[in-house]
Amino acid sequence: MSAPPLETSGTGLKAWLTAPIPASPFQARMQQLSLKWWRLKANPSALFGLAVIVLIVLAALFAPLIATHDIYAQDLGKRLLRPSAAHWLGTDELGRDIFSRLVFGARITLYIALLTAIIVAPLGLIIGTTSGYLGGWVDIVLMRVVDVFLAFPSLVLALAFVAALGPGIENAIIAIALAAWPPIARLARAETLSIRKSDYIAAVRLQGASPLRIILGHVVPMCIPSVVVRLTLNMAAIILTAAGLGFLGLGAQPPSPEWGAMLASGREFILTNGWIAAIPGTAILITSLAFNLFGDGLRDILDPRHG
Amino acid sequence: MAKPLLEVEDLFVSFKGAHRTTQAVRGISFNVGREKVGIVGESGSGKSLTGRTVLKLTPKAAHIDARRLSFDGIDLLAASERQMRSIRGNRISMILQDPKFSLNPLMRVGQQITEAYRLHHKVGRREAEARALAMLEAVKIRDPDRVYQLFPHEVSGGMGQRIMIAMMLIPEPDLIIADEPTSALDVTVRRQVLTILDELVTRRGAGLMFISHDLNLVADFCDRVLVMYAGRIMEDIAACDLRNARHPYTRALLDSLPRLDRATDMLQVPSRDPAWLDGPTIRSGAAT
Amino acid sequence: MSALATNAQGTAQETALAVSHLNITFGSGAAAMTAVDDVSFTLGHGEAFGLIGESGCGKSTILRALVGLNRDYEGTIRFRDTVVPRQRDKSFFRRVQMVFQDPYASLHPRKMVQYVLAEPLRIHGFDRHQERIDEILSAVGLGPSFRYRFPHELSGGQRQRVAIARALIIEPELLLLDEPTSALDVSVQAEILNLLKQLRRARDLTYLMVSHDLAVVTHLCERVGMMSEGRIIEEMSAEDVRAGRAAEPYTREFLEASTGYRPAS
């Protein structure tokens, strides 16, 4: 058993977090959370992932303060400059400052990632748990729908939707979400199938709880950790798909500083001015990696099978 | 008196955690001769860990320390992993609680017994097979030729445990460590399995370390009983004297059992004394 | 069906539960396996009856059918002289509750004790939640300080106490006990058995217990039904068991095997 060192002499927050008898549900929850944080801290790669994500979030939040130049201002006299003191990461083919565009691009990337997660998580959770808990024909119908979605490669599916809805960042998000929920639903259903057999679900059934109460109150909370972990790990794929759509001209439209679109426009100069493509590419790589590392760490602390 | 098979003196096992070290076994000493020694205790008392330590099958994080840990003159503490491999199974074997987890699910049970024999004896396949069949017969399996061909999932719990015993005893070990070998079995099956184990151990003059939580069973089955609590041996007593145990913990455990011979209203709930952690071990009625 | 049954002491009392001609089969066709074979028994109000047998004898299957976790059964189950509908309703669970074998599995790993105990109150529309929770926690010997604990912070015995509190908080009449102490250490088993005995007296409960441990069953129950291969082969009083009075050879073998180890001849 691992527990953080108990410091009985501590005062304030520390004492409150390690009190042997919590005085309120809030305190009890915070104590659990602090234990998880303590376990996450022991995992350097997850911590690194988290640090990068926090950095990107900060960059996105304070983009206007961080950016050094107007991201739309073109200056054809200064096109394709190498990194320098005036332009930290150089300029692109229209003379726009790449560093500033990268910082603002973080907003778009996070916007896509967050919005997709908000759509995908509840959708996949509800469909998966309902399907798994109720079984029978509900399960058959829902899982066949999932199969249809899974039959297409996600990028192809997203492409088809964007083609139908028209290019644009919101449509790209809807398209990505439509391609991303089926694996989540599958995962939630698989978890539910093992959860529904457990004694604690039998116990609530014996208290007379309705299926709705059982699914929302007891099955979903058990599925959330694995779904969150899966989503975090999928975040990399979502960001890549978004960048891919941008690259193909179907996501964010120019002059928006979306990383995929930036990468696409830098493609022409890849042999002569490689950094124009390399910089947004590296940003995509690092962000994806950060989400992956953090997701792995999150799995270690959240997954009930890991204690 | 003959030299004991296993000599343990001042054995400590600790686990290094991230922030503190947990002492799981704290300075125990005992000997096992060619006899049946029962180790009883509640969960967390360190009884299973003691059994595993003898085979050096402890988890990686465990640290073993002892003044003496020797088996038949071999210093187990200093033994290399290679030496240990030749001891495990061959000279000391272990029977676990659930045969389902200890048998290879993809191999016929007869084959597994044959392999176990050939691992330690340089004999031909034919001869090993004959030995395996004889062993299945020795553990009272009615139709050994048929059972030989079965896969582990096709046998019942009691049968599986008998197969485990056959497999563990076929190399003719000197010491057998049985960790809760009958806890997963029904009472009527339990008796058959114990009878077989008893016969084989007695006939071959092997030593047996019988780890269990069941005081009544150990009192009837073993020759000597070690009562463990919190990583220490509380009492070392002849099994026939267990009902007259001296240590308050042993007495409390006995009193907490519901009895079949007379009606009791409320059971005694053992109270624990922190002084026991540093107190003496009572050996055959005398504190040492 | 008479409203009166006779208990072990020969006095008439109200019937709490009557099971008649219960049959349960798993699978169908050639693979069909009869798990429970024409089982009938009655349980007087305030009585404790134990079903005992080895694994696979059908004792737990009977419990699962009684509470409606398995609806595929034949025969009738009457509770207080009313035939229980196949689809159990809330009013049934208000009066019949169950304690499971493994306290490590029967509590939701992410729910605080407080929530675990409040849920049945909410489902059945009880008032005064906080007072009832504090009261039941004291009754099972834990005390209100356990309100905001999570199951993984509790020992096996404490968890089983929470599970018992959860079953008793809505004040049921009949408590089904599925091997409630077999996953616990002997000293903790003694605590839980004492608690169950004391709660039964204090709350006028009826117990139906299932176990493989004869000593545990006879300690708690006045009457015992010996099960083998899906049937109740013999009903005995706890006195009979202690005196070793058994008619069936299988029961005698079971009694003998339960009293400890003697080499089989």
Overview features:
heterotrimer; A: 307 residues; mainly alpha; MetI-like fold; 12 helices; 71% helix; flat; disordered N terminus; B: 288 residues; alpha/beta; eight-stranded mixed beta sheet; five-stranded antiparallel beta sheet; 10 helices; globular
Write the layout of secondary structure elements.
The complex is a heterotrimer of chains A (about 300), B (about 290) and C (about 260).
Chain A: H1 12-18, H2 25-41, H3 44-61, H4 63-66, H5 98-134, H6 136-150, H7 154-165, H8 169-195, H9 199-206, H10 211-247, H11 259-266, H12 275-302
Helix pairs in contact in A: 3-5, 3-12, 5-6, 5-8, 5-10, 6-8, 7-8, 8-10, 10-11, 10-12, 11-12
Chain B: E1 6-16, E2 21-32, E3 36-40, H1 47-54, E4 62-65, E5 68-71, E6 74-75, H2 81-87, E7 92-95, H3 99-102, H4 109-120, H5 125-138, H6 144-148, H7 157-169, E8 175-179, H8 187-204, E9 207-212, H9 215-221, E10 224-229, E11 232-238, H10 248-255, E12 282-283, E13 286-287
Parallel strand pairs in B: 3-9, 3-10, 7-8, 8-9, 11-12
Antiparallel strand pairs in B: 1-2, 1-4, 1-5, 5-6, 10-11, 12-13
Helix pairs in contact in B: 4-5, 4-7, 5-7, 7-8
Chain C: E1 4-6, E2 12-26, E3 33-44, E4 48-52, H1 59-66, E5 74-79, E6 82-83, H2 90-95, E7 96-99, H3 113-123, H4 129-139, H5 156-168, E8 174-178, H6 186-203, E9 206-211, H7 214-220, E10 223-228, E11 231-237, H8 238-243, H9 249-258
Short description:
Chain A is mainly alpha-helical and 307 residues long. Chain A has helices at residues 12-18, 25-41, 44-61, 63-66, 98-134, 136-150, 154-165, 169-195, 199-206, 211-247, 259-266, 275-302. The model of chain C is unreliable at 1-11 (pLDDT under 50).
Describe this entry's structure for a reader:
The complex is a heterotrimer of chains A (307), B (288) and C (265). Chain A has twelve helices and no strands. Chain A is an all-alpha fold and 307 residues long. In chain A, helix 5 packs parallel to helix 8. Chain B is 33% helix and 24% strand. Chain B has helices at 47-54, 81-87, 99-102, 109-120, 125-138, 144-148, 157-169, 187-204, 215-221, 248-255, and strands at residues 6-16, 21-32, 36-40, 62-65, 68-71, 74-75, 92-95, 175-179, 207-212, 224-229, 232-238, 282-283, 286-287. The longest helix of chain B is centred in the C-terminal third of the chain and has 18 residues, at 187-204. Chain B has a domain at 92-172. By secondary structure, chain B is α/β, with parallel strands linked by helices. Chain C is α/β, with parallel strands linked by helices. In chain C, a hairpin with a 6-residue loop joins strand 2 and strand 3 (33-44). The longest helix of chain C has 18 residues, at 186-203. Chain A binds chain C through residues 21-25, 27-28, 32, 198-200, 202-209, 213, 217-218, 221-222, 304, and chain C through 67, 69, 88-90, 92-94, 97-98, 100-102, 105-112, 114, 119-120, 123-124, 145, 148-150, 163, 166, 170.
